[in-house]
Amino acid sequence: MSEQQTTGQLASAASSEVMIEINQMNKWYGDFHVLKDINLTVHKGERFVICGPSGSGKSTLIRCINALEEHQEGDIIVDGIKLGKNLKNLDHIRTEVGMVFQNFNLFPHLTILENLTLGPIWVRKMPKAEAIETAMMYLERVKIPEQAEKYPGQMSGGQQQRVAIARSLCMSPKIMLFDEPTSALDPEMIKEVLDVMVELAETGMTMIVVTHEMGFAKTIADEVIFMDAGDIVERNKPEAFFGNPEHERTQKFLSQIL
Amino acid sequence: MAIITKQKTPDRPAPLSETSVVGWLQKNLFSSVFNTALTLITIFIIYLTLSGVVVWGYLDATFVAEKRRECYDNSLTGACWAGVIAWLDNIFYGRYPREEIWRIDFGGLLLVAWMLPLWLSKVKGKILIGASVIVFYPFLAGYMFTGGDKGWFMQFMVTGAITAFVINMTNMLVGLLKNTSLDVFLMQLSGQADAGDKTQRNILLAMVATLFVAAFLWQASWNVTEVVWTKWGGLFLTLVIAGIGIASSMPLGIFLALGRRSKLPVVRVLSTGFIEIFRSVPLITVLFMATTMFPLFMPEGFVLNKLVQVIIAVILFNACYMAEIVRAGLQAIPKGQFEGAHTIGLGYWGTMGLIIMPQALKHMIPNIVGNIIGLLKDTTLVSIIGLFDILGMLRSISKDVPWVGLHKEPLIFGAMLFFIICFSMSKYSRHLEVKLSAGDKH
Asked: Where is the ABC transporter domain (chain A) (predicted)?
């Protein structure tokens, strides 16, 4: 889609430290088997892009990593902590894992600055002045410091999504998850959000991105994962994935989307 | 005509029908023969009604008279407001001793003064002020209204109330004059503005403690005569029952609503059962249960005064309605808000208190105010079980010897009173809605 990102690929920042480990994970919604025997290891600094047709389970997969959804079988180990029913673990995981949603999910009754400082102040128990300083730093980074006193409803979609990214970063997470961050945006706003994400990738953040922005995938991804009907059908380096997809379903999907 | 416009088309003024009064009349009232006829007929009906009301209620009415007979002597076709005027004190205060009425007025003024900072944009710490009203005001007002001996608990709460009130008032003054909050101002005043958080907190605590001790000594010297609750009545009693009912049923309703949506089965079933049972029974039944059945279940010698029983009944009954309003408000909040809150690590209470409730309450304002208005009107039911609230007082006028048989005027006066109170509440809620939604235009 957006060809402007294809120029030059980022060097991989992957190290040997394991951030996320998923073993034989299964999930059902009622009778419906959404995720089937998922195995995935993500190292620190690694950047994954997950794509696939709608209903393939890609969003569910990253929501499981953030414990927004429960899985029924297998293990998910995030930053050395096994996800389970233990509530204390869940809260801890969520502060370590940032997530950006398709619909931003900013808090409409709070100003941008309050949106950003809420987590650090109430969860991290950071002094207010320090939280504001951090928030302003991240707003600079997503290039909208002048909007700090506005409410989310007064901003464009692209700006809101950049605020959402800054909000996650304020919690200084170790991993960032993106659930179709540009799908709800008007075309002219997609680039500003993707640029912020590329910059984030340059800092060496561990990222898992569910997206159909293939240009973006080529730029930042260490590996691209293709999911279909709850299976990881194919995973490969971006050039191999796009240049020479092995699986028939991948080929069909790519031919529709590119 | 060209399909494509090369230049920018200039703006033209809007047609008359959109801007002038005549245009508006023509468009909305006289647009066709049929509509013109309807308009004229409606105007005629309004004229008939209004002129009747004005003649009866004002032109032919009697305002000064000693008894109903004199009203009739003056005019047979007019209203006899003299009876209502003679009973005004009773309508507002019931049989409260006349020389002690100032205590009720003072209590009311105190509430207004206490809440005043909530409307001033310059004053800081609104949440604390609101909380202090709910926690402390009832005790101070309760003592003002009842008087008599204070137990140690009452002494403690009254002292707390005085302390909170004094702090609140100084905070308001500081906010208005210096545009800052009281704690910051005190720190600057004492030259400790740069001291550490802990030192500052200790200094403030010491100040509050001193104030508390002073207030305690002061209130211990108060000597207010006791007025038994049976002498309470009129609009005062109605407002007390409704006020306590509303202030207590709100938090209770929030907890019931959260309970009903809880993931814990026991909590959910209990809350749902409680809500459904109380909601499916008329208020009058609950009131009768509370005043006649409830004492039967209690151990012998356990006497709870009737007013307390009535208030508890009203609270429980109204909390269930409040719970359903809150639940509806909670359901209107998109799931994404919960997820957004979870991803920044907020737990259940953090999510509810900081993210969900503030948004939900805003959606609920029209319904909550509707409920408050409903409750205020429903409390007149207590006149059936023998409390002399405003309705009870209005109806006793007709049994008073000089005014025997005077029904119409007192009830109309009561209706007007209720209309003024309820209509201003509804207007204010509308204003609140507009004000609160100013921030988020989607």
From this structure: 20-254
C-alpha radius of gyration, chain A, whole number: 18
- Say yes or no to pLDDT of A5 above 70: no
According to the model, what pLDDT value does residue A4 have? 43
Task: Give the nearest chain B residue to A157 (CA atoms).
Answer: B442
Same domain, yes or no: B65 and B120? no
| CA distance linking residue B217 with residue B418, whole number of Å | 41
Other C-beta atoms closer than 10 Å to the C-beta of A142 total: 24
A-B contacts at Cβ under 8 angstroms: 70
> Quick check: A107 and B337 CB within 8 A?
yes
> Are B198 and B60 contained in the same domain?
no
Binned at pLDDT 50, 70 and 90, residue B203 comes out as confident
Q: In sequence order, what are the residues at sequence separation of 6 or more whose Cβ sits closer than 8 angstroms to the Cβ of residue A15?
A: A43, A44, A45
- The alpha carbon of residue B403 is apart from the nearest alpha carbon of chain A, in Å, by 57
For residue A8, name the pLDDT band (cuts at 50, 70, 90).
low
ipTM score of complex: 0.89
The answer to whether residue A94 neighbours chain B at the CB level (below 8 Å) is yes
Residue B211 inside a domain? The answer is yes
Q: What is the pTM of this model?
A: 0.82
Confirm or reject contact between A82 and chain B (CB < 8 A): no
B33 shares its domain with B174: no
Q: Which residues contact A171 (CB under 8 A, 6 or more apart)?
A: A95, A98, A119, A120, A123, A124, B344, B345
User: What are the chain A neighbours of B362 within 8 Å (beta carbons)?
Assistant: 109
Find the domain containing B163 and state its range: 100-226
Structure tokens at A36: 């089937």
- Helix axes A128-141 and A157-170, enclosed angle (nearest 10): 130
- Yes or no: domain A18-256 corresponds to CATH 3.30.465.10: no
Mean pLDDT throughout A76-89? 80
Last residue of a domain, one of B185, B210, B226: B226
Question: What would the two tokens of residue B34 be?
Answer: 């049929």
DSSP 3-state assignment of A182? coil
Q: B269 and B391: one domain?
A: yes
Q: How far apart are alpha carbons B362 and B42 in whole angstroms? A: 38
As a whole number, the mean pLDDT across chain B is 88
